[in-house]
Specification:
There is one protein chain. The chain has 163 residues and is α+β, with helices and mostly antiparallel strands. The chain contains 3 helices and 9 strands; from the N terminus they run ββααββββββαβ. A hairpin with a 5-residue loop joins β6 and β7. The protein is globular, with a radius of gyration of 18 Å.
Amino acid sequence: MRISNEKVYLLEVNTRFGDSESEAMFPRISENLYDIIMDFACGIHINKTIQHDSNVCLAISIVTSTAGSVKKNQKIERDGWSFNTEVCRMPIRLTTDYLSEKVTIYWGNASNNQSGTIITGCGRVAHIVGIGKSLEVARERTYSSIPAIEFDGIRWRSDIGAS
């Protein structure tokens, strides 16, 4: 926050950079966001519009669920996310054949176990972000990439970007 001439200026930054709203923004920025954030953090006055392209991004959260509550790979609607620990540390199978060059996976609550296998944490495991010239293209790229990530109890919302 900066106060100047009795006006308050606020730039909200998700410091974790873990929410899908932030991750859907990053692919569109065409300049060095780190430099802008560091200038702001150091109190340097910023009087500019951040340059970005006209593409559309759409992000889907890939989350864990209670193992007995859903069938494997079942889509869910707007019923909230489960954070039951019985589905933590599930092995993740990653198949990059499903990924478009216009799709990025941002890993959230995932890690490697002692043998080097990628495993889930609880809650939001990853975000898949597709980019395109329209919402329909970005949505198609994102949803068609979901099969790239597999683990027992995987869940995602099926209504993101729908009309």
